[in-house]
């Protein structure tokens, strides 16, 4: 008998399996398709691989001459970009398989069907295994809805990675994280891109000033952005899609060779999971230990339908593992970083300016990337670091960064918010010079009314 059977080998599932094994438990991990789940195979890793290529191409085109580098006839080969992407995915997948083997996790490939609260059938092997606990890590699937579900060959994010040639034009439905990352990629390679976003602005979960900075960057690549706009009707005629949209007091027709629906993902909850009788709202409901309404069944990652990010799934997997092993550990979601691999990158953690309730209690300071010495050496001017702090205590409540390497720099904010650090404490920490992290230093100094470089 296993101590735990984990269903789903994505970021949450494989991390949970390894941690359980490290804690001395006997673990089975069942994956129906490819180890690594959405993130490794059709999400984080392939997206960042193709975006790295696109960013490099953009830098060469826009900066080489300014840096005194002579590059003639610069171009790109899509098949080479896709080959790089495939290699990145394969290496990540093999790395996970190696780690599971190293940690003595029994890995089964096949469709898992839960028979009862302790037995799981591995369908293709016609084999039933038994476990004291079951961890649901089924992940998510792309969301597609009317009118897009009635027209053939509409792309979701999963389909982009199968392309063999670039479309001349693409309409991206949804200006959230997925939509903006793909808009960045396609526009960098010269595709005519239109983004249709129903909310007030693109990146609706970020502050408006973040949206405005990313709009500047996208418009440099001639991306058309329609905000507060809804697609009412779509048809496919003469080898192109025709989209009828309505916005503020106006209607517009868009044509594109491809349409990508990028409005997020929804929890993957199969019938055997539903049959258990678990409490389900948008996703599987759990407590802070990741336990469901059934004592020995846990749920982690996207199947919960809450914060659907790979790094959150990983940590949920660790918390679930410790609780199964007899430790007491609870999830803390107060310092979850959000990251977007646009160009420049976006990263945020904690309180957003748009969510501030009592303006009297907080102080906000924004330091521009254009005032950073390292950014000037890189020919980067778009962006800022914005700090939200408690006015009296100086305690950091939120940090938003729009900058090259923002996705790496955000960890300073994560640690500050998680451990209750103040702007003064962070400003008193020596930041290396010349680096982009000094943009953060300038923002922390600004909270103290002591900014030097602005």
TrEMBL record:
Binds 1 FAD per subunit. Residues 336-440 form the Pyridine nucleotide-disulphide oxidoreductase dimerisation domain. Its main location: cytoplasm. Pfam families: Pyr_redox_2, Pyr_redox_dim. Residues 2-317 form the FAD/NAD(P)-binding domain. Its EC number is 1.8.1.4. It is found in: Cytoplasm. It catalyses: N(6)-[(R)-dihydrolipoyl]-L-lysyl-[protein] + NAD(+) = N(6)-[(R)-lipoyl]-L-lysyl-[protein] + NADH + H(+). The keyword Isomerase does not apply. Gene3D superfamilies: 3.30.390.30, FAD/NAD(P)-binding domain (3.50.50.60). Its cofactor is FAD. Keywords: FAD, Flavoprotein, NAD, Oxidoreductase, Redox-active center. The keyword Flavoprotein applies. SUPFAM superfamilies: FAD/NAD(P)-binding domain, FAD/NAD-linked reductases, dimerisation (C-terminal) domain. One of its GO terms (molecular function) is dihydrolipoyl dehydrogenase (NADH) activity. It is an enzyme of class 1 (oxidoreductase). The active site is a redox-active disulfide bond. NCBIfam families: lipoamide_DH. Belongs to the class-I pyridine nucleotide-disulfide oxidoreductase family. This is Dihydrolipoyl dehydrogenase. The lineage of its organism: Bacteria, Thermotogati, Thermotogota, Thermotogae, Thermotogales.
């Amino acid at each position: 008998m296993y101590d735990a059977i984990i269903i789903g080998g994505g970021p949450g599932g494989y991390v949970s399996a390894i941690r359980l094994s490290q804690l001395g438990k006997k673990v089975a991990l069942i994956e129906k398709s490819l180890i690594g789940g959405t993130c490794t195979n059709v999400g984080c890793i392939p997206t960042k691989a193709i975006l790295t290529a696109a960013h490099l191409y953009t830098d060469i085109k826009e900066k080489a001459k300014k840096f005194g580098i002579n590059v003639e006839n610069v171009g790109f080969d899509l098949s080479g970009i896709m080959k790089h992407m495939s290699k990145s995915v394969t290496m990540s997948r093999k790395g996970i398989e190696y780690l599971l083997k190293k940690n003595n996790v029994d890995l089964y490939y096949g469709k898992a069907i839960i028979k009862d609260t302790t037995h799981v059938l591995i369908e293709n092997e016609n084999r039933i295994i038994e476990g004291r606990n079951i961890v649901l890590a089924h992940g998510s699937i792309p969301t597609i809805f009317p009118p897009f579900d009635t027209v053939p060959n509409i792309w979701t994010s999963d389909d982009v990675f199968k392309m063999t040639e670039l479309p001349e034009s693409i309409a991206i439905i949804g200006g959230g994280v997925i939509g903006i990352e793909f808009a960045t990629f396609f526009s960098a390679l010269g595709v005519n891109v239109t983004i249709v976003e129903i909310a007030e602005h693109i990146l609706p979960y970020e502050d408006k000033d973040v949206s405005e900075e990313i709009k500047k960057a996208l418009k440099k690549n001639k991306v058309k952005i329609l905000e507060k706009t809804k697609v009412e009707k779509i048809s496919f005629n003469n080898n192109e899609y025709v989209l009828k949209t309505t916005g503020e007091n106006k209607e517009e027709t868009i044509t594109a060779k491809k349409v990508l629906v990028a409005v997020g993902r929804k929890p993957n909850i199969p019938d055997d999971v539903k049959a258990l009788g678990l409490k389900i709202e948008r996703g599987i409901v759990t407590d802070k230990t990741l336990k469901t309404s059934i004592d020995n069944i846990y749920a982690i990652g996207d199947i919960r339908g809450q914060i659907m990010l790979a790094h959150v799934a990983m940590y949920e997997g660790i918390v679930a593992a410790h609780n199964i092993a007899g430790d007491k550990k609870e999830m803390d979601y107060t310092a979850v970083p959000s990251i977007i691999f646009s160009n420049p990158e976006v990263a945020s953690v904690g309180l957003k300016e748009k969510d501030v309730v009592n303006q009297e209690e907080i102080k906000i300071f924004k330091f521009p990337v254009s005032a950073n010495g390292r950014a000037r050496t890189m020919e980067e001017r778009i962006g800022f670091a914005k700090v939200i702090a408690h006015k009296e205590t100086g305690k950091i409540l939120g940090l938003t960064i729009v900058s090259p390497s923002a996705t790496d720099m955000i960890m300073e904010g994560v640690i500050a918010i998680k451990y209750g650090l103040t702007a003064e404490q962070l400003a008193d920490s020596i930041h290396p010079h010349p680096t982009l992290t000094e943009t953060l230093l300038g923002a922390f100094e600004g909270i103290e009314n002591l900014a030097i470089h602005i």
